[in-house]
Amino acid sequence: MAKHILTTPIQAADLEGIKAGDIIYLNGHITTCRDVAHRRLVEYGRELPVDVRNGAILHAGPIVRDHGDDKFEMISVGPTTSMRMEKFEYEFVKQTGVRLIVGKGGMGPETARACKDFGALHCVFPAGNAVLAATEVEEIESANWRELGMPETLWTCRVKEFGPLIVSIDAEGNNYFENKKVEYNAKKEEVLEEIYKHVSFIK
């Protein structure tokens, strides 16, 4: 697996050569953006208050300490299940021009189609590393749609070497999780056939 460092703003050319399964580290900015924000944009036609074109979003509901005077501290920022956003992601990528989507677990064919059509990546932040992820946030620069509560607020963060991020869908639409399922299922059938031979012999 190759290692890549991306810095926002990210151009389509920056994604060339990056393949599903590669490792990414992000410098620059990333905005937390999950269920309600996707729904507001796609279903209700509300423009995002943050420009994420050529930028990055994180499917996450962080824990943030409010120090007052619009000063915040990231305590924990664990990714949430990306598949919940699957039904929105094609239109979301189309409308916003976002280049990097980070979350937990894989995504499906609509996200793969968006990555291929518009030049984007979906990446996975390894589970169980929410506190580590928070240490890679240098500053929370803005907080939008705070009326939605802490998990759904759009927290725009300046980050340094945010990762490791595993590319689950590359800009050609290759889906690492789905490809591995096919590979594992093929191996499973081979193993089962071998087991059945031995079971038959024992009988």
TrEMBL record:
It comes from the Bacteria. Its EC number is 4.2.1.32. Pfam families: Fumerase_C. Residues 7-179 form the Fe-S hydro-lyase tartrate dehydratase beta-type catalytic domain. The keyword NADP does not apply. SUPFAM superfamilies: FumA C-terminal domain-like (SSF117457). It catalyses: (2R,3R)-tartrate = oxaloacetate + H2O. The keyword Cell cycle does not apply. Keywords: Lyase. It is an enzyme of class 4 (lyase). Heterotetramer of two alpha and two beta subunits. PANTHER family: L(+)-TARTRATE DEHYDRATASE SUBUNIT BETA (PTHR43351:SF3). NCBIfam families: PRK08228.1 (NF006082), ttdB_fumA_fumB (TIGR00723). Belongs to the class-I fumarase family. This is L(+)-tartrate dehydratase subunit beta.
